[in-house]
Specification:
four-stranded antiparallel beta sheet; 7 helices; Rossmann fold; 3 domains; Immunoglobulin-like; elongated; alpha+beta; 358 residues
Length: 358
């Protein structure tokens, strides 16, 4: 065979393989990705697991997978990463016929949040890099990164004082169900506590003596405003102050659950996932703590309404018998007025200041 014919055959084969990979490069090629854990805390490590499979006898010279991944997820090896705020992660593979490749990337979760890294672009190409077949793949790589739970010595003194106040109050609230005995009527005793049978037997008013509850209720209220005059976007430094409040709420929620205290959460921030509510009624269980941590993970530091409006809604709902801790960068006469109304309903209201406020 003359050199010319060899060149012709090679050219024809090159054209044919280009046409093939342009049309069928990704045929029977599958790609999946997932995180090794769906829920972690700030600072913890997790693996992003990629699985690429070729279910046909024809090999694929190269397959490139590209996806945008937040800079808050730091890869152990940083090559193939862009320098933009939302970085591009790229993986390059060679796929033989009927083969499967599993690749694991160690990631450090630097910041709380909800991260959806499911969408990826898969590109398969020919031997010469001329033709390529492209497809978008929707995987299942989603992760909740919970805020770091502060240790007691990392909490502000006022937060520790609030814990002590809640612990004391858990023993001093009369329980409407538990009755420890009967005693003589005293001025101010409610009529509903009168024990009529004992009254008839003794000839003088007798009332039920209530036992004391061991199930207090706490409500953590996080303010996503840096001041009552806040307008427009928040400065990064101010947003970091609010992040400190997020960590305080996480630590206090964990403390409440460990100590048998019903705890709820409320904020005027925005949820990154509309299906996850940021208004959580008080309960005491590990599932409740998980619910609050999940809400803190999806919280966007973006005000949806003024804090005093949020407190007004609690007043309108006649919230009572609650230990309310307002975690806020500022306090004002308007907020003190709302706090006074909540106290008249039988609540305690405490302000926990976070840095940079007034």
């Amino acid at each position: 065979m003359t050199p010319i014919w060899i060149m012709v055959v090679v050219a024809v084969l090159a054209i044919l393989q280009t046409i093939y990979y342009n049309r069928f490069g990704l045929r029977k090629v599958s790609y999946t990705r997932r995180f090794s854990r769906e829920r972690v805390f700030e600072g913890e490590k997790v693996e992003l697991v990629e699985v690429l499979a070729n279910d046909k006898p024809v090999p694929v010279p190269w397959v490139r997978v590209e996806s945008r991944i937040s800079g808050d997820l730091q890869f152990r090896r940083q090559e193939n990463m862009g320098l933009s705020m939302d970085r591009f992660h790229k993986s390059l593979f060679y796929l033989g016929g009927f083969s499967k490749i599993t690749r694991r990337h160690e990631i450090t979760c630097l910041h709380r949040g909800y991260f959806d890294c499911s969408l990826a672009s898969v590109v398969a190409g020919d031997l010469f890099g001329v033709a390529h077949d492209r497809a978008d793949v929707q995987g299942d790589a989603r992760i909740f990164v919970y805020p770091a739970v502060l240790k007691p010595d990392e909490l502000p003194d006022t937060a520790l004082q609030w814990q002590g106040d809640v612990t004391v109050r858990r023993w001093i609230l009369p329980d409407p169900i538990l009755v420890s005995g009967i005693r003589a009527y005293r001025s101010g005793d409610p009529r509903k506590d009168v024990h009529w049978r004992a009254t008839a037997r003794t000839g003088s008013l007798q009332v039920k003596q209530r036992d004391y509850t061991v199930c207090p209720r706490a409500l953590l209220v996080l303010n996503c405003q840096i001041s009552d005059r806040q307008m427009g976007a928040m400065e990064p430094r101010d947003a970091e102050y609010i992040e400190g409040g997020v960590r305080i709420c996480a630590a206090l929620a964990a403390w409440c659950v460990r100590n048998g205290v019903d705890v709820g959460f409320l904020t005027n921030g925005e949820s990154a996932l509309p299906e996850i509510s940021l208004s959580i009624p008080p309960r005491c269980s590990e599932a409740q703590l998980e619910r609050i941590l999940e809400a803190l993970a999806v919280l966007k530091i973006r005000m949806t309404l003024d804090l005093h409006v949020l407190l007004d809604r609690q007043i309108e709902a006649a919230v009572s018998d609650m230990d309310i801790l307002v975690v806020s960068a500022y306090w004002s006469d308007v907020l003190e007025e709302r706090a006074g109304k909540l106290r008249k309903l039988g609540n305690s209201v405490t302000w926990q200041k976070i840095g940079g406020g007034q």
